[in-house]
Amino acid sequence: MVRTMSEINEKLVEPFFKGTAIDSLIIANIDGTVIFEKSIDANQDPLFSGIISASVSSIQSISSILLSKLRKDVLESYVLFKKETIFVAKKIQDYFIIAKVKRSPDTEINKYLKILTDKGLPLIADISSKSASEAITAKIKQLVPEALTIALVSASGAPISYLTVDDAYTNPIDFDEIASYAAGIGLASKPIGAIEGDSSMSIGEKTTLLSLNLTNERILLILVPNGHRPVQDYLKMITENTS
Q1: 25 CB-near residues (< 8 Å, 6+ apart)
Q2: Contact 25, 38 (CB under 8 A)
Q3: How far is the first Cα of the chain from the last one, in angstroms, to the nearest whole number?
């Protein structure tokens, strides 16, 4: 079972629609695969028809044109579609944001390109952070195949990314209780060995919870079964491979 916090933050999406003529929004990664699509009209065809499964060839062509332009180091682009629609697109880091805008005589394309930039930067930053966090949990699973639970939390204890390898072990470290493990019991105040800020504690008789302070005020929590490796070996190996 895999549980992550990779859902798009709806609070960062809402500003695109509020007070604008945008009626659809898409975010795609660098290869053009859509990772998010939202429309204020539930019955409207998705913009990336070839990827999301709609069949409007004209919209698919527009999407292809925009992505083709953006991949050639063009940071922003737009396409006029019929009389009532404008597609505007922006490349931010390794992601594309495309908005479908209801066109009117006073529609300013530069205004919407600026909206994609101003409101897109915090959204893409949030997506990138979560993507990187989930990559860390996946890497730890490779380094510590015996791990029962891997969690990445913020310094305040808020869960960022979470991987449960075996459902039978969800009870010893429940997802909703991670905050208390990370912040409440103060694991980081009990350093082990020479790795300041890293520590461990027993959870029951058969498991141990490792706590490692990472950069960017994140804490990595790993629940491991006892008897596989010494705690200090875990901490040293993980630190060397996540720095």
Answers
A1: 13, 16, 17, 36, 37, 38, 39, 97, 98, 99, 100
A2: yes
A3: 27
pLDDT in tens, 191-234: 333 334 556 666 667 778 887 777 666 778 888 888 888 888 88
Strands 22-29, 34-39: pairing is antiparallel
Q: Residues 80, 160: one domain? A: no
| Segments forming the whole domain that contains residue 46 | 9-128
Tell me: do 123 and 216 sit in the same domain: no
Number of domains in the chain: 2
Residue 13's H or E segment, with its range, is helix 10-17
**Helical segments of 104-206, H only:** 109-143, 178-179
Summarised one tens digit per residue, pLDDT across range 84-100 is 788 888 888 878 888 88
58: its two tokens: 């004209």
pTM, two decimal places:
0.55
Q: In this structure, is residue 135 part of a structural domain?
A: no
Listed residues 95, 128, 161: the one ending a domain: 128
